[in-house]
Design brief:
Keywords: Membrane, Transmembrane, Transmembrane helix. Helix content is 82%, strand content 0%. It has 11 helices and no strands. The longest helix is centred in the C-terminal third of the chain and has 34 residues. The chain is flat.
Length: 228
């Protein structure tokens, strides 16, 4: 019972993430079917669960040691790989900004029509992938989850007990605010239309301008770091 209570407390605390809630509101405004948001939640659950397995069984530490070994033995190849990734970030952001700011009027009209077609129609596959990316980006800051995994590692648990606890944590407890948002969207969707319209404008601005600028900034900072 003590272990179960610790699991519930850690999961509820970890789930109270305002960034994740805001992300779901934005993404939920881009779905044609409110039930499809469950694929986004599933992406988060799968990523969190796999990370838990890696942490508990030492795969994360092994992966980190392998990266450090590769970096020590092949420093020039490691540097070149990072440089290519940085250039890729800059290229992607630059192309996106060029399309938005400097293309001809006719091409801008085509892009606007494509955006209107895309608007509200994130596929199940894309929702699942967005969930994976969103969760992976937040894992380094998931202090309650890391503390919970460290606590489980200190215990002598059977594999079945650990996996059941991890499933309970990730599938039921951790995502409780996201499930509440999903239920609210199903029951009160007509009242959320105005909110979704505002969120769609924010989402479009982010995808068209802020994300390309962020991509360019990451690439430039990465190159600056490599040049030191």
């Amino acid at each position: 019972m003590q272990l179960l209570m610790i699991t519930i407390i850690a999961g509820v605390t970890d789930g109270m993430n305002p960034v994740a809630i805001a992300q779901q509101l934005l993404i939920q405004s881009k779905t044609s079917n409110q039930h499809h948001i469950l694929f986004y939640i599933a992406g988060i659950e799968v990523t969190n669960f796999i990370f838990g397995l890696m942490f508990y069984y030492g795969f994360a530490e092994l992966f980190s040691k392998s990266i450090n070994t590769f970096q020590a033995n092949l420093p020039y190849l490691w540097w070149a790989g990072q440089a290519l990734l940085a250039i890729g970030f800059i290229y992607y952001g630059g192309v996106r900004l060029y399309q938005r700011l400097f293309q001809s009027k006719s091409n801008k009209l085509i892009l606007a029509e494509e955006n209107n077609t895309f608007n509200g129609f994130l596929s199940k596959k894309k929702l699942f992938l967005i969930g994976i990316i969103a969760c992976a980006a937040e894992l380094p800051t998931a202090a309650p989850y890391l503390a919970y995994l460290a606590y489980l590692t200190s215990l002598e648990l059977s594999n079945v007990t650990f996996i059941l606890l991890l499933l309970l944590y990730n599938i039921i407890i951790f995502n409780w605010p996201l499930y509440l948002l999903y239920i609210a969207s199903v029951l009160f969707n007509q009242y959320l239309d105005k909110l979704y319209q505002s969120l769609q404008k924010i989402f479009d601005m982010m995808s068209h301008y802020l994300l390309p600028l962020a991509s360019i900034s990451i690439g430039l900072l990465w190159i600056l770091q490599l040049s030191k």
